[in-house]
Amino acid sequence: MSTLSNTSTWYIYILCCADGSLYTGITTDCDRRLKEHNECNKLGAKYTRPRRPVVLVWSEAVASRSLACQREHQIKQLGRVKKLALINS
Fold first, then answer.
1. Which residues have C-beta within 8 Å of that of residue 34, sequence separation ≥ 6?
2. Does 2 fall in a domain?
3. 34 in a domain, yes or no?
4. What is the chain's mean pLDDT, rounded?
5. Which pTM value belongs to this model?
6. pLDDT tops 60 at residue 5
7. 4 has pLDDT over 60
Protein backbone atom coordinates (compact mmCIF):
# COMPACT_ATOMS: atom_id res chain seq x y z
CA MET A 1 0.00 0.00 0.00
CA SER A 2 1.36 3.41 -0.93
CA THR A 3 1.96 5.93 1.84
CA LEU A 4 0.59 8.60 -0.51
CA SER A 5 -2.85 7.05 -0.89
CA ASN A 6 -6.03 9.12 -0.87
CA THR A 7 -6.50 8.33 2.82
CA SER A 8 -3.21 9.91 3.89
CA THR A 9 -3.21 12.92 6.14
CA TRP A 10 -1.65 15.92 4.44
CA TYR A 11 -0.13 18.91 6.18
CA ILE A 12 0.28 22.52 5.18
CA TYR A 13 3.31 23.98 6.91
CA ILE A 14 5.15 27.25 7.32
CA LEU A 15 8.90 27.44 7.85
CA CYS A 16 10.83 30.38 9.20
CA CYS A 17 14.13 30.68 7.35
CA ALA A 18 17.43 31.92 8.80
CA ASP A 19 16.93 35.27 7.03
CA GLY A 20 13.50 35.69 8.67
CA SER A 21 11.50 34.93 5.53
CA LEU A 22 8.57 32.52 5.57
CA TYR A 23 8.12 29.49 3.31
CA THR A 24 4.83 27.60 2.87
CA GLY A 25 4.50 24.04 1.58
CA ILE A 26 2.60 20.76 1.84
CA THR A 27 3.69 17.26 2.86
CA THR A 28 2.52 13.98 4.35
CA ASP A 29 5.36 13.97 6.91
CA CYS A 30 6.45 17.25 8.52
CA ASP A 31 9.52 15.81 10.27
CA ARG A 32 10.86 14.22 7.07
CA ARG A 33 10.18 17.35 5.04
CA LEU A 34 11.87 19.62 7.58
CA LYS A 35 14.95 17.38 7.48
CA GLU A 36 14.93 17.53 3.67
CA HIS A 37 14.73 21.34 3.72
CA ASN A 38 17.66 21.55 6.14
CA GLU A 39 19.93 18.79 4.91
CA CYS A 40 19.20 17.66 1.36
CA ASN A 41 20.20 19.68 -1.70
CA LYS A 42 18.18 17.48 -4.04
CA LEU A 43 14.94 17.24 -2.04
CA GLY A 44 14.91 20.55 -0.16
CA ALA A 45 13.17 23.43 -1.89
CA LYS A 46 15.36 25.68 -4.02
CA TYR A 47 14.08 28.67 -2.01
CA THR A 48 15.14 27.29 1.37
CA ARG A 49 18.61 25.96 0.41
CA PRO A 50 20.44 29.30 0.78
CA ARG A 51 18.29 30.27 3.80
CA ARG A 52 19.19 27.41 6.17
CA PRO A 53 18.59 26.54 8.86
CA VAL A 54 14.81 26.57 8.64
CA VAL A 55 12.44 25.98 11.54
CA LEU A 56 8.91 24.60 11.40
CA VAL A 57 6.70 27.29 12.98
CA TRP A 58 3.19 26.17 12.00
CA SER A 59 1.33 23.22 10.50
CA GLU A 60 -2.26 22.21 9.86
CA ALA A 61 -3.60 18.75 9.01
CA VAL A 62 -6.13 18.19 6.23
CA ALA A 63 -7.71 15.07 4.79
CA SER A 64 -6.47 15.15 1.18
CA ARG A 65 -3.79 16.49 -1.13
CA SER A 66 -6.42 18.52 -2.95
CA LEU A 67 -7.46 20.30 0.25
CA ALA A 68 -3.79 20.81 1.17
CA CYS A 69 -3.08 22.46 -2.18
CA GLN A 70 -6.12 24.71 -1.84
CA ARG A 71 -5.15 25.77 1.69
CA GLU A 72 -1.51 26.28 0.67
CA HIS A 73 -2.66 28.61 -2.10
CA GLN A 74 -4.83 30.56 0.36
CA ILE A 75 -1.91 30.99 2.76
CA LYS A 76 0.51 32.00 0.01
CA GLN A 77 -1.89 34.83 -0.89
CA LEU A 78 -1.61 36.27 2.64
CA GLY A 79 0.82 39.04 3.43
CA ARG A 80 3.56 38.57 6.00
CA VAL A 81 1.59 40.20 8.83
CA LYS A 82 -1.38 37.87 8.30
CA LYS A 83 0.92 34.84 8.07
CA LEU A 84 2.53 35.81 11.38
CA ALA A 85 -0.94 36.19 12.92
CA LEU A 86 -1.81 32.70 11.68
CA ILE A 87 1.40 31.31 13.17
CA ASN A 88 0.70 33.02 16.52
CA SER A 89 -2.97 31.95 16.70
1. 15, 54, 56
2. no
3. yes
4. 93
5. 0.90
6. no
7. no
Put residue 25 in one of left, alpha, beta given phi > 0 → left and psi -120 to 50 → alpha.
beta
Q: In what order do the strands lie in the sheet with 22-27?
A: 22-27, 10-16, 55-62
Query: Length of the chain, please?
Result: 89
Which pLDDT score is estimated for 8? 87
Handedness of CA 82, 30, 64, 46 (dihedral sign): positive
Residue 39 has pLDDT above 70, yes or no: yes
Look up the CATH number of the domain holding residue 64.
3.40.1440.10
Hey, how many other C-beta atoms are within 10 angstroms of the C-beta on 59?
15
Q: Is residue 53 part of a domain?
A: yes
Cβ pair 6, 64 in contact under 8 A: yes
CA distances from 44 to 35, 48, 64 (A): 8, 7, 22
